[in-house]
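ARCHIVE CARD
SHELF: 3
SLOT: left
DATA:
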Amino acid sequence: MPIRLARDATLVRFPSSDGLQLEGRLTRRDRDRGVILCHPHPLHGGSMLTPVIMTAEQVFQESGYTTLIFNFRGVGGSEGTFGEGRAEVADVTGGLAFIEETLGGSPRLQAVAGYSFGSFVGGTVAATELRVRFYLGIAPPLNTYDFGFLKAARCPIALIAPSRDEFCDRDRLKALTLSLATTPWLRLQDTDHFFTGVLPELAQACGEAIRWFEQPPSVPGM
């Protein structure tokens, strides 16, 4: 699946919850579905133009979600400086508020998705914000960051992890999934941390994760 910007995508500026002006890209779809998309590490070239997170953006759009992808503080035209993953939480919560303002209220299905560093920041918000109904973490760098906060999450969790991830040992991934309050949806892909050569397969996995969230398995006898 080639990556392409939606024709109706709009460049926007919105405030983080601590007052910085951030740049982003908004694409309107259903008003009852919204997603905030978080890019990888700012100090290693991550931005809202990173192909992996753009792949997820496109799949969410095709699934009917209004998407907001943005540059973390200090990246591109966003104000501020790198905040080591802690200050960036305010960027995501600012995005949630902007989505609500744009759509005239909180979407019925509000999701947060992130890749690598973005999965850490986005997951931090998903674990504490009751507005977030679904979290998709792509290549969580468990060797670098402690994702134990996900134990407190009450929303459904989906994880897409490379089987040859330089930044995530398989044992750490297994330990995380076993520690969560509910069983997450998990997909392993035969690739490295950067999804080299497998973006179409990543897109398919993102679509399957979204469908899993929106159409949970039926309960026997119901």
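SLOT: right
DATA:
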Amino acid sequence: TYTAHAVPSYSGNMANELKKSKKYYLYDLGIRNHLLKDYRRFKEREDQGALLESFVFLNLLCQQKPNMEIRFWRTKKGQEVDFIVVKNRVPLPVEVKSSLTDTTVPPGLAAFLRAYPKAPYGIVYNLTIQNETICEGRKVLFKKVEEATFLDYMQTLF
């Protein structure tokens, strides 16, 4: 019925990462709101993080090219990155955070950059901070979540 999209896990090391897990996203956030019976404004909701993650996913999906795939990363130790955009078999970690106070790199993103030296950089989408920092010798870009709607800058860097 095309109401949900399954996102498979990303794995370069089968011994350490969960291979068969999937995350699911609804194509329509209105359906999600209806199922939850929650129609409050965004700022009044406790599930802001899940809404932002779904928003970023839908924007990544709309901009996906034939040489790209969207996955997520989670280890048995509980380290996680919301999305891994794989382009020409090169992974790019993308994390979504609803609240940040500084440019501290989320632990899951730092672990991914440590485990995958082929990743050219990382992105953290959030509501407030626009900046960049260095983690594991690579840039981590902090972008406002609205920028997920146009990823042309990502295509040139990646």
